[in-house]
Amino acid sequence: MNKLVNKTLIAAAVSTAFMAGAAQAEDITVVSWGGAYTTSQVEAYHKPWMAKTGNTIVSEDYSGGLAEVKAQVEAGNVTWNLVDVELSDAVRGCDEGILEVIDSSGLPNGADGSSAEDDFLPGTVTECAVGNIVWSTIVAYDTSKVQGVNTMADFFDLDKFPGKRGLRKGPKPNLEMALMADGVPAGDVYDLLNTEAGVDRAFAKLDSIRDSVVWWEAGAQPPQLLADGEVLMTTAYNGRIFNAVAAEGKPFDIMWDGQVWDLDLWVIPKGAGNMEATMDFIKFSTSTQALADQASWISYGPVRKSSAALVGSYHNQPELDMAPHMPTAPANFGNALQNDFEFWADNQDQLNERFNAWLTK
Amino acid sequence: MSTADLTLTQDGIPLKEKLAKTTALQRRRAFLLTLPLVLFLIISFVIPIGQMLFSSVHNDKVSAVVPNFADAILQWDGQGLPSEETFEIFVKDLAAAKKVREVGRTVGNMATRINYEKPGSRSLFTSTARKAGKIKEGPYKEALIKINKKWADPSIWLTLQRAAHDITPAFYIAALDLKYADDGSVIKADELYQIYLDNLMKTLGVSALITFICVLLAYPVAYLLSVLPLRQSNLLMIMVLLPFWTSLLVRTTAWIAILQTEGVINDMLVFLGFISDDGRIQMIYNQTGTIIAMVHILLPFMILPLYSVMKTIPPSYMRAALSMGAKPLYAYRKVYLPQTLPGLAAGTLLVFILAIGYYITPALVGGEDGLLISNLIAYHIQKSLNWSLGAALGTLLLAVVLILYWLYNKLIGIDKLRFG
What we know:
- The structure holds 2 protein chains of 2 kinds.
- Chain A has 16 helices and 12 strands.
- Chain A is an alpha/beta fold.
- Chain A folds into 2 domains: 2-134 and 264-321, 3-Layer(aba) Sandwich (D-Maltodextrin-Binding Protein, domain 2); 137-261 and 329-360, D-Maltodextrin-Binding Protein, domain 2 (3-Layer(aba) Sandwich), CATH 3.40.190.
- In chain A, strand 1, helix 3 and strand 2 (56-61) form a beta-alpha-beta unit.
- The termini of chain A are far apart.
- Chain B folds into 3 domains: 3-43; 67-167, no CATH class; 196-416, MetI-like fold (Orthogonal Bundle).
- Chain B contains 18 helices and 2 strands.
- Chain B has helices at 15-57, 67-74, 84-99, 107-117, 122-132, 140-147, 154-163, 170-175, 196-227, 230-245, 248-259, 264-272, 287-311, 315-323, 328-356, 360-365, 373-382, 387-411, and strands at residues 178-180, 186-188.
- Chain B has a two-stranded antiparallel sheet.
- In chain B, helix 1 (15-57) packs across helix 18 and helix 17 packs antiparallel against helix 18.
- Chain B is flat and about 100 Å long.
- The model of chain B has no long low-confidence stretch (mean pLDDT 90).
- The A-B interface holds A 65-67, 70, 73-74, 92, 94-98, 101, 169, 194, 203, 214-215, 228-230, 270, 342, 345-350, 352-354, 356-361 and B 100-109, 111-112, 115-116, 119-123, 126, 192-195, 198-199, 202, 260-262, 285, 367-369, 371, 376, 379, 381-386.
């Protein structure tokens, strides 16, 4: 009882605006990608926010995409309050009216005093979404089996590094990586992919390793494939590989050349309840401190510039500095490509079809 | 006919009337008893399938988003570019639609719809919609083309005109590996993009192969089950049923553990020296894996109908045939086999139809070449969100099953089926 009173008092003191909401605790369902990534969010966002407001968060996992959101919204039975999505889905969902418009004027200023508008990296706050992290698809390999993997061309070179490769099952971002491996500079990749010849060239490059590819779908698979020795190298989400190394002591390393980076953002399915509590959680979780805290659990970069200074070491290993493991660290960012959501919004149906046809033939 | 001729029941009502009354009562009671099931079938089966059939031909994402324009473009003769008035209506509709955030009525919905037929045009709509509100006065045609020169391409307008019809064959055209050419005629899709027909054929082939293997494996087992003494046959029956009662996912995962390159079989072969450590055999995440796992999962559906039929065949028939001088094989072919046909027919139909729509197992162990048509349908429902195309593929699958069922009925006769 005392605890409850305390919580209510703290909540009331912290935020008068949400006094009513905090006094009668509310449940919100927050949906994310599971595994080490959800753990980082639970530790850095959910637990402190629940302690602060007395509200409860139900954490659910999903494997990305808008299918569930669309189904819930169209059925008029929305049970998810907040979903962590990729940029292309945030834009597409907003265009199709299945996401709530988020008023970004309420986002708090950075801890260094800069306004929210300046503090968030360009393009990380959109009409219906507020960004939280920068993540990246990279190439990972097992250092106990192979060394000297330096470029994307190496990943596609079966003569130099014979062995199986893991790739995400889908055209994105394999086509980009194939072109970079074929010598196309990151800046020209999407211009080239906008032409039929460019797409042909990317598929031709994929063809060259096709018989050695093991396809993966969920983010948790690539570290497992590496650990099981099913593949020699694989594309993967950088945070998952970092986690396998930091938390499980696996002998993996990341090859950053030709990384394709993207954003994860919070979106609210249209018609979700508890909007006030949800908005409060968005503001809390995308604050300078929360984003910096999250980065101490997994190596995904905060989207606020002001968070960079506060990013410290891995949560239970003080000697493990997080900054060099971020996709945006200068040493890693030399040849990096941002996933072009507009290109994919325009071409994903067609390229998926071609990819599936290519895969089954 | 006078009342005097009528047979009366004890209470003076004509027998005919009384009988009709009682049977009507019985009929009503029977109807009421089946009512829950009928309602259940309507709600869980008839309505969803009806909806699927409907959404495979119905898509109103143009007429719902830009209604005035949809009316106007249907008047267009398809020559050159639409008239200035049509352009004006389009710009105004688009500007108005940009403000709409109602689900299914946004510019994004229309853009997605057009993008299915004209890949790469999605951003043309969304970006133009953002600027359409700024066009205050004509000439609208020039203003629109200034925003993006793609608007000068007649094929965009032809696509819009086609999509302005709410009832459209477009999704069946896509599902049959066809496409609209720029001039609006239907042509074969580029070979690099053909996927559905090949996959449907592959699904039929794989299902037939699985059914065939099931027959080969199930027939002797069912025979053994039917002739063994009760004790042994019970034990054997439990061995058949135990996997049947085990979760599908558990069984599929077990096959992964057994067949994978680092799995039990490969480890054993390497240990025994039959293959080298680098030469491990790929037995799963391909078509072989799909077939092995699906045969195992569908086998009971073949064994059980066969067994129930074989159980009813008196052993004396075979003995009689043999005692009259028939060679064992001849007796088997003439006496035993024909009597098992109803079970064989039931098992074949059951396994084949289950296999053709199987989803989970190929998704888990199929890799890339083991994926069946149901996985492509799931892909469009869950990932690409092109529900209309998913519905069209589902309808095609349903049609194929119904045709096969009809053919089966013609050849063997549904009344011959015996499931147990």
